[in-house]
Design a protein that fits this description.
The chain has one domain (about 1-235). It contains eleven helices and seven strands. The chain has helices spanning about 45-60, 75-80, 90-100, 110-120, 125-140, 145-150, 155, 165-170, 175-190, 195-210, 220-225; strands at about 1-10, 20-25, 35-40, 65-70, 85-90, 230-235, 235. The strands form two sheets. It has a five-stranded mixed β-sheet, sandwiched between helices. Helix 3 (about 90-100) packs antiparallel against helix 6. The longest helix has 17 residues, at about 175-190.
Length: about 250
């Protein structure tokens, strides 16, 4: 199972603080996405995420194969504690924003193209080559921007170890981002919910309505193979080597 996680901040009209909604969306064995959990967290802390993950585990959730999320989340420390076998995939949507924030605006157009060459590469080897090219191009003048890619490269390219049909789904937290665009729009219209409970209820109902429109994972038949632990290399299923044919008896 794949999961996408994020912490979404929603302003509460009658209170000082914003709600931090901890959101986890997963994919079932049939390829359909569904909301796994929605909770009121405390500033995306690792303790809040750990409580959420432990609750999911108590309810029978198995360890996700791969989790996609922003690198700033307290989720990563929590998942290493609760589900240590889960692999990490850092979100390219968030990472691109972080890199561009470390560059002057004049460099943004070319930097966006260079970043896209990494995550749109035909395989992990070509992606690693594109990442080296990015570091060479931007590292001298803007080392912080380059380091945001080179320091996290392994977890940015984790999606390449899964079926190619799934890459477009795994490299960002788009299932959450696109859904919460509706939540943010409703928030602007209503000037924010009047209470924390109302904010959680509003988010849940909007997600529940959006869930029916969520796009299935491409090649859903491969989800069960990933869940079963079948390895993939360069996006292809690794076949077990055939046993050698028995030698014919000597005449």
């Amino acid at each position: 199972m794949y999961v996408w996680v994020d912490g979404i901040h929603v302003k509460v009209r009658l209170e000082q603080d914003k709600i931090c909604l901890l959101v986890m969306i997963g994919v079932r064995a049939d390829g359909h996405k569904e909301l796994i959990a929605l909770a009121d967290g405390f500033r995306e802390s690792s303790e809040s995420w750990a409580d959420l993950l432990r609750d999911c585990k108590r309810r029978g959730m198995r360890a996700p194969v791969l989790a996609a999320g922003d690198g700033a989340l307290g989720f990563w420390r929590a998942v290493r504690d609760v589900f240590p076998d889960t692999k990490e995939q850092r979100c390219w949507f968030h990472k691109t924003g972080n890199v561009l924030a470390a560059l002057p605006k004049s460099a943004h157009p070319n930097a966006k193209k260079a970043l896209a060459e990494i995550y749109n590469a035909e395989d992990k080897t070509h992606a690693q080559t594109a990442a080296k090219a990015f570091a060479a191009e931007y590292g001298a003048k803007w080392p912080k921007a380059a380091a945001k890619i080179t320091d996290d490269l392994d977890v940015l390219l984790a999606f390449y170890d899964y079926p190619a049909e799934h890459w477009v789904h795994l490299r960002t937290t788009n299932p959450i981002e696109s859904t919460f665009a509706t939540v943010r729009l409703r928030q602007r219209v209503t000037k924010g919910p009047g209470s924390r409970a109302a904010g959680i209820a509003m988010a849940f109902k909007l997600i529940e309505a959006a869930q029916a429109r969520w796009r299935m994972v491409n090649a859903p038949h491969l989800v069960a193979l990933v869940r079963a632990g079948v390895p993939f290399t360069n996006s292809k299923q690794v076949e077990r080597p055939d046993q050698s044919d028995p030698q014919p008896n000597a005449a």
